[in-house]
Amino acid sequence: MIIFFYGEDTFRSYEKVLEIKNKFSLNDKSRAGLSLFDAKDSKDSAYEKMKATLSASGLFSSKKLFIAKRIIIESPTDEQAKILKFLKEHAEKIKVDPDLVVLFWEEGIPRKNNALFKFLLVQSRKQNFEKLSGTKLNQWIVDSIKISSPEASIAKDALEKLITFVGNDTALLTQELEKLISFSGSSMISAEAIDLLTKADLDNNIFETIEALSANRKKKALELFHRHLDNGDDPFYLFSMFVYQFRNLLRIASLQEDGIFSEFEIAKITKLHPFVVKKSYMQAKNFGENKLTSIYKKLGTLDTKIKTGQADIKLSLDKFIVEL
């Protein structure tokens, strides 16, 4: 069998590699049939390593797991050509042999015109580990909590806040969840626990874009928004950040309208993280409560159109920024 894992979410893809490796090791206590090669860390020939491993004691004669890491990204072209030739010659034997697994793992997405990449896409059991967003990201967090601690859970507002602070970096989310589960025990993870333990990564969300909008610098806001897209941020995730932040701005502006100007008091009343209040305070003041109410209603209408297929999300967000 040939298996191929790749994609932007390298944390989840490598977790799957480890799962297969550990399962193999349970059935092969001596680990004699396990062989690893990482093109990034080794100066040896990946082709020679693969050929020697699969040919040892007769080709495909005993249970074997060969894990090849970063071959496409790190190995020289001539080395990849040899591997490709070897695989083409033996692909059918490998695919039908129940005692052999050749697993390729790539960090990220290789170039689409790479010959070995194109071969693996056709000849392997492949999986592209894309960055999670929306309900898939929510479910992944819930499932991760249950796997780590079956008695633990997370409140809806805490889940939203965690994603806002950390984004969709599953490796970083895993670290944060370990802290939160340890702190909360069998109790539900609360938004307060996230305020206490999780530092907001403001560089990864939409604060700066909205800050430019609040100062009426639409060209700058568009530039920042498209920088997010160019960096691979999911447009649906960005839209959810717009909704989240404008909702917070409306809450803060409403308190300012009522004569409450202390950042400490606003954080206490809204239960928002002090980082969020500090970043949002002047934005809310610049927009004002009336305009923020109108903006939030517009986002609600836009949300309905996007979900029902009446509007393209990227074009809609461009238009939203320009017309704000």
Textual characterization of the structure:
This protein has 324 residues and is α/β, with parallel strands linked by helices. It folds into 3 domains: 2-128, 3-Layer(aba) Sandwich (Rossmann fold); 134-197, Orthogonal Bundle (Helicase, Ruva Protein, domain 3); 202-323, Up-down Bundle (Zinc Finger, Delta Prime, domain 3). 63% of the residues lie in helices and 9% in strands. The chain contains 16 helices and 7 strands. It has helices spanning 10-27, 46-55, 71-74, 77-96, 115-123, 134-148, 156-166, 170-184, 191-197, 207-214, 218-230, 235-257, 263-270, 274-287, 289-307, 313-323; strands at residues 2-6, 34-38, 64-69, 100-105, 125-128, 153-154, 188-189. A 5-stranded parallel beta sheet has the order 2-3-4-1-5, sandwiched between helices. It has a two-stranded parallel ribbon with strand order 6-7. Helix 2 (46-55) links the parallel strand 2 and strand 3. Helix 4 (77-96) runs parallel beside helix 5. The protein starts with a strand and ends with a helix.
Q: Helix segment count?
A: 16
What share of the residues does DSSP label as strand, in percent? 5-15%
Strand order of the largest sheet: 2-3-4-1-5
State the CATH class of the largest domain.
Alpha Beta
> What's the end-to-end separation, in Å?
54 Å
Q: Characteristics of this structure?
A:
single chain, 324 residues, alpha/beta, Rossmann fold, Helicase, Ruva Protein, domain 3, Zinc Finger, Delta Prime, domain 3, 3 domains, five-stranded parallel β-sheet, two-stranded parallel sheet, 16 helices, 7 strands, elongated
Sequence-ordered SSE layout with sheet pairings:
Elements: E1 2-6, H1 10-27, E2 34-38, H2 46-55, E3 64-69, H3 71-74, H4 77-96, E4 100-105, H5 115-123, E5 125-128, H6 134-148, E6 153-154, H7 156-166, H8 170-184, E7 188-189, H9 191-197, H10 207-214, H11 218-230, H12 235-257, H13 263-270, H14 274-287, H15 289-307, H16 313-323
Parallel strand pairs: 1-4, 1-5, 2-3, 3-4, 6-7
Helix pairs in contact: 2-4, 4-5, 6-8, 7-9, 10-11, 10-14, 12-14, 12-15, 13-14
